[in-house]
Task: structure prediction
Amino acid sequence: MEIDVAALRAGVKARQAALQARYLDNNDAEALLRQRSDDVDETLRQLWNAFDFPASMTLAAVGGYGRGELYPASDIDLLILLPQEASATTTAKLERLVSCFWDIGLEIGHSVRTIQECLNEAAGDITVQTALLEARLLTGSDKLFATFRKRLFGNLDPLGFFEAKRLEQQDRYLRYNETPYSLEPNIKESPGGLRDLQVVFWIAKAAGYGATWEELGSAGIMSQEGVAFGKQFEDYLRHLRIRLHFLAGRREDRLLFDYQSNLATRYGYADNESKRASEQLMQAYYRNAKGLTLLNTIVLQNLGAALAPESLQCPQDYDGNFQIVGNLLDVRDETLFERQPAMIFDAFLIMQENSELQGMTATTLRALWLAGERIDDSFRADPANRAAFLRLLQSERGIVHEFRRMNQLDILGAYLPNFGRIVGQMQHDLFHVYTVDQHILQVVRNLRRFTMSEFAHEYPLCSRIINEFDSPWLLYVAALFHDIAKGRGGDHSEKGTVDARDFCQNHGLTVDDTELVVWLVRQHLVMAQIAQKEDLSDPAVIARFAALVGDVRHLQALYLLTHADIRGTSPKVWNQWKGKLLADLYQQTLYHLTRDESPVAHGIIAERQAEAMRLLRFFALSDTVHERLWKQLDTVYFLRHSAEEIAWHTRSLHYRIYNNQPVVRARLWQEGVGLQVMVYTRDQHDLFARLVGFFARAGYSIVDAKIHTTAHGYALDSFILLDVEKREHSREMLAYIEHELEDRLNRQAPPEAPSAGRLSRQVRHFPIKPEVSIRGDEKGTHFVLSLIAADRPGLLYTVARTLAEHGAELHTAKIATLGERAEDVFLISGGDLRDTNQRIRLETDLMERLKV
Result:
């Protein structure tokens, strides 16, 4: 029979286009999936018959196609079942058939096996076994297919299959960082994606409990409420995946930034003052995913209990309302929380009080999930419930676990309605990688870890401070409210104080404790801003911050909250350099607050010089070795460098103060991972641009730069570098940097631009509008250049070159990179900066060059 491939291809394309138009008109996802499957069924049968295969062979659909669910860009998985090994003639025919499939535009995934080969593959690969469970006869031998099904299910161990699929799901969760809240989730594979639903049906089908929601309800695996929720979650994800495939024009299951805005528009979302349309779309997705992960947990528990009832131990009495089954907390009566809503918090308190409990039974989880509606204004106003909520915060253990569980069950958002508003809310600010609710709970987790002895090695200073701090649970309250007003527009820190004050007053906190919590919410960003953007060696900065905090208690609380907050934004944002900046600000402010008189500049300098001299004596250097160099250094130098750095510089330079050759010294950074580099050379035009270009080309990012010019015209610059390439042998780079950089400076080689690199997709799709400001200092001799821009390779080099072109001299550089966002501050002078027009030209040039 002659096959008209062109006609078949055109027919497939036309019918798919018609199905797409019909879906966009009627918005019926289930109909689209079924109709597309039916259409492909008919095409495949037509081709199969055209090749005149033996009647003893079978063509079957497997996988998602076997379920009769064929998404617009999904693979079409087929099983060609043979009664025995294929002959050469049949093999050749099969090859032509598969080629024809592709020629007409069908993306086919196929296997050719006998029944025994299917069984062997299924026994060794759970994925193959799962796909075969979905097998559906298309055409060919009914008898062969029936025999295959009988033997496949006859060899199946439902409990073993359940355990294998549960382990497979755990591994899948790990691949996606165990969270549905990633910036670009995979709506099929991520936790809370379609795969979580499919796992439930695969296990249910293997165990004979059914393959539809209604059948699971009839089998007692799910409640009617659970069935309704399951249908709702599935319908949402079906529509989202269909629209994503249509938009991408190919198989794409990741909600990439490239598609979020377009999808949001097609779902009817629009930008408003507080949220972009894409953020509204993602919040709806995250909430759906959160509910689905909980449903998956409940149903899998029910399936496990049904498959292995003997694994459940005899219930142990706990009290009149609860019992313990195995290591799970079980509610005796599912209606308990409806009858006595006050028992809701008791369930979580019991979890905190009993370390042997590893979780809650499906019955308890389901009852709590449905009980959220019982948390109303009268519940929130009940003094007993308010006291119970405070006990949850004041517990000796289990705070993070139970607050996360309450959030998962929508209990936390029901009790704190404004917290409920930020559940699933993602902010595309390029350094928060968690939704607002997850970030808040991550901050609570970070604070909680400070109190635990097993984690004292992580941040010893924080652990010491929090163990000296009275009522550390107040910090958890501040953490709960510090970002609770995100997404409302305006200053979230200020708006959050209203919620925090209401909570504290309603829950009976003392006046002092209320004031502390409210103050922390209002000021939670201040310490990070000062540490990362201002000169900590300036006594005026420390004095101003000390006046803000007022006393040691407020300083300790703000330091702990700030530390936990920065670490809770993203694993990439925190580094040891930020930790050192915060610790330095804390220590200097503590020193200021606890002395009888405020430190003055000459006192600090004297202390540092004395300590530097003490360190120099360890190297058997004379008491006068420092004099020639220090005569060339001014007050600013001694304010900006630690005693250890002063000693290092003096040791390296005391015998070559007037050296004609550049001096470069590199060492491992003593405060953490990275390198510290000192450069000493006659001041040169474009020097800073040359240095930052060299470091960038060598694979390092600059996290701190101290730029100084001596009285006799030498540049004495210090840098802290972090290895972008994360090489294992940092020590081996020291000699390279010293030799290569000295050579380039000696030759006065022109600045070398670092490679442009590639912008991250976050920056491409959510660009940061550059912000540049130049403001004069109080004396009018220097200017502070502040900029915010999307971080990218060569950013600092671009800034340095622009400053050089405008004749501006650089005195200090404060480098801060927050995820994809760079916030840098420079102290500059010269270049006619006193002329307003000149400053505007510099700002304009920087703005233009910082655009991505």
User: Anything to note?
Assistant: Residues 312-390 form one domain.
